[in-house]
Amino acid sequence: MSHVVVGYDGTSGSERALRWAVGEAGLRRLPLTVCHVWRWPYPISYIDHEGVAIVRRMGEHLLDHGVTLARELAPGLTVREQLKDGSVYPALVHEGHDADLIVVGSHDPDEMPVGSTVLRVPALADRPVVVVRSDALRDGLVVVGVDGSAGADAALAFGFQEAALRGWRLRAVYGCREPGAVPDGDLSLFGDEDKLRRVCGTVLERAVAPWLVKYPYVEATTSLVLKSPREALFEAAEDATLMIVGARGTGAVEWLTLGATSDTLLKHAPCTVTVVPNRPA
């Protein structure tokens, strides 16, 4: 049976993530797995067995607190607990391998440390990862980044599902003024703005059309923006409750595990961000 996985460490950010995950699990009618990862903070060459037992017990207490909070928020929800040791991001990726999605908390924008779990889990997971930066609003807006890629199509699939589950509006945004964002990298389009609008507008409408048929009750709009994808999505993020992007778009920087736009949004967007793998398992 599938489930929703949330990382919890007792911080305010992880509590926001827990609240979001409880809502997701309830809407999807799935069990919730609350996962806490504890770690011996000293080199492996220095093992104090009594100290290790104390650190583990502290982890158990934090996990118990998270599970209790989840059950208080949703009394009828099935809540499981998972205590792991080691590094956080491999543990969450492993635990989420058979999940519908993984939910983690976040730092404030512009305070993302190098190697952060918030960046590494979306880069490695084969499931959608929700990075919760703000509490959900009752009347929400889902913004999905579109560029005609397989990653964008996966993001649209998740975005329409999320909008349908929550009763939120959806806006598909295509920032097309960047060589990597236009079909086949056709630079000639940038010399003719009308043609650029026409060609990229067709890409946008064709990408969204199948999902409008599948989810006719979702209030959805499209927005073609003559700016780079990052600029277009950052502008849209100001109004968004949830931003959804593919792990990789049409950009040509192949060695990046995450696309440049996805990476930048995770670091700086003011709203909650979901990164969807190009080929969800």
Entry keywords:
about 280 residues, alpha/beta, Rossmann fold, 2 domains, ten-stranded mixed β-sheet, about 40% helix
Helix amount, in percent?
Answer: 40-55%
Shape: elongated
Any idea of the CATH topology of the largest domain?
Rossmann fold
- Unreliable spans: 249-256
Contiguous helical run count: 8
Radius of gyration from the alpha-carbon trace, in angstroms: 20 Å
Q: What's the number of extended β-strand segments?
A: 10
What is the total domain count?
2
Strand order of the largest sheet: 3-2-1-4-5-10-9-6-7-8
Mean pLDDT score, rounded?
A: 86
Q: Give the CATH architecture of the largest domain.
A: 3-Layer(aba) Sandwich
- The CATH superfamily label of the largest domain reads HUPs
Distance between the termini: 14 Å
Report the sheet-strand fraction.
15-25%
Structural class: alpha/beta
CATH class of the largest domain: Alpha Beta
Largest sheet: 10 strands, mixed
> Which series of helices and strands comes N to C?
EHEHEHEHEEHEHEHEHE
Notes on the structure:
- Residues 249-256 have low confidence and may be disordered.
- The protein is elongated, with a radius of gyration of 20 Å.
- The protein has a ten-stranded mixed β-sheet, with helices on both faces.
- Helix content is 41%, strand content 20%.
- It has helices at 12-28, 49-73, 88-95, 117-124, 150-166, 193-214, 229-237, 260-268; strands spanning 4-7, 32-38, 79-85, 101-105, 129-132, 141-145, 169-175, 220-225, 242-246, 272-276.
- It is an alpha/beta fold.
- It folds into two domains: 4-132, HUPs (Rossmann fold, 3-Layer(aba) Sandwich); 141-276, Rossmann fold (3-Layer(aba) Sandwich).
- It is built from eight helices and ten strands.
